[in-house]
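Database export, one record per block. Field names are fixed; values are copied verbatim from the stored entry.
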Amino acid sequence: MAVRLRLRRVGRKKFPIYKVVAADKRSPRDGRFIESVGQYEPLRNDNVVTFNEERVMYWLKNGAQPSTTVQNLLRSQGLWLKWSLIKKGADESTITEQLEKFSMQRAEREQQAKEKAADKKKEKAAPETEQPAAAESAPEEAPTSEEKQETTDVQEEQQTAPAEGEEQSGEPEEKQSAPEETETDSKTQQDTAQDDQKEEPSNEDSSKKE
């Protein structure tokens, strides 16, 4: 019987939890299994992975083949490194030394990942704080409807001002007063003509008397 280490889903809908099981290669994914040797919760913050190390090594020594996903999980926990060192025939001191180096490197990688995540959160939060500030300053700079109405009134007054000034200038008054002067001149000419006619008979009478 060919044994395979693989995942078996047991979580609820939209919240999967996977059991790492040793099962017959011919059985379906969620069918019968021989033994559960670990658990994987991908939706948790730290991607919780737990293994029963002794049983994992037992099945690997007995020829069980892990699936690609399970192999990656074993590699992330350092168990695949331990298994590769055991296959090479390394002694326990070298195995423990290599596992300590691996754990230190993994801690550094996790710290860097946390720092990157914090930086991304800060970058996302910075534009959100700038947008409300711009929104608050925009109404102060934008003219209100009352100010717009005042500017339009001022423009209308400036457009009508030249026409009123022309009506109040001296040239139209002279034009209006000019006809009055002509009327008075015609009246004076008529009066002088009548006076001359009155004086002419008096001269004729004086010539008759002589």
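Remark 1: The CA atoms of residues 117 and 123 lie 10 Å apart.
Remark 2: The first strand starts at residue 3 and ends at 9.
End of record.
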